[in-house]
């Protein structure tokens, strides 16, 4: 109903009923209220987001409700809101949500509640920024490891497995988010996962084994499962179960990817042998066996890691893959999201797959006419170039024969394709005709000197004052583009935009989670005005205000513009940086940018931030005994920045800054100013 009628109608009704129901002594009413909150987020997203603080505070109270079904419903609401309001939910409420879920994970007396808390943690971790989730990594993993050990014993002693199945999924989700920070847990967890794969072979443990092999990333509501046919780009075809509209992850693969493929490579062959063991020692798994989808999904991902070394396994894996791919299409749907992970991968080797290419083509061509789901047709079509590439090794005549087989059905599919983009092509002639009929009129209008201002400028400037953060963000971005590429003719427009941008940035809630992207786009727009189109503004005064608005850490597309200008101002010795606290301020801003990964390391601005003049500034800060050195962590920060500079060869040894950075007397003189504790910390940093 919320999706159908919308938030304006439904949220008022829900808000009118839910608070009273939550206070009811009847657990059924409290349960119903929380489930209503869970269901409302998608359809009432815009309206509910404005009161999210109150909603979250109310829901979290019921994670400790006396009745287990109410606690279950509270976990359900937390998990659903984690998905519906991501990533704002994770950024704003992590301090309350994570500890709350960890408490519910101790509910050993109610395994369904315990498992649902773990499922909610999957939703939360999936969209949680890495820097936030890493803060809680130790308590989360301590809890999950303890539960994993405990529930594994329960499985052996009593045969219970519900919580164990979910914990395996949750561990993989956390690893997927924190990536390399998960390395310390890898060696402890991988043996347990491999043990489950090797020994959970009985009928009742098939699902546990399957989940250990391949983790379906799902929301707490657990959508129905469907068959998905998926064509890996030219190297394998696999069919796997995944939760609808969500990418599937392989448990051991996720852990391996998190810690790096180099570390996981040592386990890849052993894991592959374990996956094949039961498949080859017993009869072929039936099509409805829950392990089938997980196995084939895992094979494809391990194939990506092993590359050409996977060729030895092709004879064993292709038969079940082909058999599953050939299943009747009325139960087949296709998810091609994972294709993005391997498109453009230059390390794939097609030769070993050549002998299977013809059979796969015969499966894919009929899928061009699969009208029940457009993604099936898309992936079938996208697989054909890779299959032709596989066949290249057999010579041009063989490829021509394969192309002759593909082309007629491909042309028919193009002609019969019901999707919008193909329908657009069908009526393109009509649209183009109308276009050219109006072309002269449009050119005449565009020749009018007021055209741009009338059509674009006023709405864009008006958007800077919109009540919607998304509109303010888009308008700010537009002002930045105008400043960067519009040229001198738009200098008056940039001057008009500047006070509006400044007002947007100065709003009391400008840095809130909901508004921060709009704010940072506005700061970036001012950056571009300062840098590219400043003829009609007071540039020096604007720069002084601009410096007070930094740092910019959330928008990694706009942050490089900001820090590039900052480095240029440092290099030129701008007067705005002549104040006593300027060196400390600049270093703090750059350190924050590095800490938050605000500027991708492949962006030119990153090199500017590590350039010699920045390190020269740092050395001047040290040499002057600046007050910045009075902070407890100053020695470590200074050494860390310089050590990184030496490690990355950021400063050439023939640059004057290099001499400053290696001036022993300079640092000894500074050392005398430090307390004994600071000296010890500095010596430790130097020794490590």
UniProtKB/TrEMBL annotation:
Annotated compartments: Cytoplasm
GO CC terms: cytoplasm
Protein keywords: Cytoplasm, Protein transport, Repeat, Transport
Pfam families: HEAT_EZ
Keyword hit for Repeat: yes
Keyword Cytoplasm carried by entry: yes
Protein name as it appears in the record: Karyopherin beta 3
Signal peptide: none
Gene Ontology biological process: protein import into nucleus
Residue ranges of the TM segments: none
């Amino acid at each position: 109903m919320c999706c159908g009628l919308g938030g304006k109608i439904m949220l008022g009704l829900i808000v009118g009923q839910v608070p009273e129901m939550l206070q009811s002594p009847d657990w059924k009413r409290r349960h119903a209220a929380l489930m209503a909150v869970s269901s409302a987020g998608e359809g009432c997203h815009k309206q509910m987001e404005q009161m999210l603080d109150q909603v979250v505070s109310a829901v979290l109270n019921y994670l400790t409700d006396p009745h287990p079904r109410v606690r279950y419903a509270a976990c359900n609401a937390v998990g659903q809101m984690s998905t519906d309001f991501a990533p704002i939910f994770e950024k704003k409420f992590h301090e309350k949500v994570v500890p709350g879920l960890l408490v519910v994970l101790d509910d050993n007396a109610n395994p369904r509640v315990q498992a649902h808390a773990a499922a909610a943690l999957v939703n939360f971790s999936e969209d949680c920024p890495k820097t936030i989730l890493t803060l809680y990594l130790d308590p989360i993993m301590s809890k999950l490891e303890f539960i994993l050990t405990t529930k594994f014993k329960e499985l052996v002693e009593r045969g219970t497995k519900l919580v164990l199945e979910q914990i395996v999924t949750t561990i993989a989700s956390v690893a997927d988010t924190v990536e390399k920070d998960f390395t310390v847990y890898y060696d402890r967890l991988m043996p347990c996962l491999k043990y489950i794969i090797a020994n959970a072979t009985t009928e009742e443990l098939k699902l546990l084994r399957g989940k250990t092999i391949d983790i379906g990333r799902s929301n707490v509501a657990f959508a129905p499962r469907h068959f998905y046919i998926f064509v890996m780009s030219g190297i394998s075809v696999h069919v796997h179960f995944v939760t609808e509209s969500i990418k599937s992850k392989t448990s051991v693969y996720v852990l391996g990817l998190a810690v790096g493929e180099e570390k996981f490579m040592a386990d890849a062959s052993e894991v592959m042998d374990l996956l094949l063991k039961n498949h080859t020692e017993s009869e072929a798994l039936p099509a409805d066996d829950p392990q089938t989808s997980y196995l084939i999904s895992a094979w494809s991902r391990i194939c990506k890691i092993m590359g050409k070394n996977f060729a030895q396994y092709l004879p064993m894996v292709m038969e079940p893959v082909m058999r599953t791919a050939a299943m009747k299409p009325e139960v087949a749907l296709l998810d091609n999201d994972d294709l993005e992970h391997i498109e453009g991968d230059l390390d794939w080797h097609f030769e070993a797959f050549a002998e299977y290419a013809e059979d796969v083509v015969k499966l894919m061509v009929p899928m061009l006419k699969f009208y029940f789901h457009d993604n099936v047709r898309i992936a079938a079509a996208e697989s054909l170039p890779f299959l032709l590439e596989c066949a290249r090794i057999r010579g041009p005549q063989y490829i021509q024969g394969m192309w002759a087989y593909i082309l007629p059905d491909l042309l028919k599919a193009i002609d019969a394709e019901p999707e919008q983009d193909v329908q657009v092509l069908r009526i393109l002639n009509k649209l183009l005709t109308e276009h050219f009929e109006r072309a002269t009129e449009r050119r005449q209008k565009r020749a009018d000197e007021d055209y741009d201002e009338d059509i674009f400028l006023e709405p864009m400037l008006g958007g800077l004052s919109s009540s919607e953060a998304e509109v303010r963000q888009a308008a700010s971005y537009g002002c930045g583009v105008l400043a960067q590429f519009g040229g001198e003719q738009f200098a008056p427009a940039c001057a008009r935009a500047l006070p509006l941008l400044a007002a947007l940035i100065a709003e009391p809630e400008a840095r809130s989670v909901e508004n921060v992207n709009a704010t940072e786009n506005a700061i970036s727009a001012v950056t571009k005005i300062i840098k590219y189109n400043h003829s009609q503004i007071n540039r020096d005064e604007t720069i002084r205000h601009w410096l007070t608005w930094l740092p910019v850490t959330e928008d990694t597309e706009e942050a490089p513009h900001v820090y590039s200008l900052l480095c240029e101002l440092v290099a030129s010795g701008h007067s705005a940086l002549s104040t006593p606290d300027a060196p400390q301020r600049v270093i703090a801003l750059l350190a924050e940018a590095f800490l938050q990964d605000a500027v991708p390391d492949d962006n030119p601005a990153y090199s500017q931030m590590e350039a010699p003049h920045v390190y020269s500034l740092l050395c001047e800060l040290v040499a002057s005994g600046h007050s910045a050195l009075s902070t407890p962590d100053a020695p470590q920060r200074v050494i860390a920045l310089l050590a990184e500079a030496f490690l990355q060869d950021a400063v050439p040894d023939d640059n004057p800054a290099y001499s400053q950075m290696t001036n022993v007397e300079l640092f000894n003189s500074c050392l005398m100013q430090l307390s004994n504790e600071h000296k010890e910390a500095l010596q430790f940093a130097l020794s490590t």
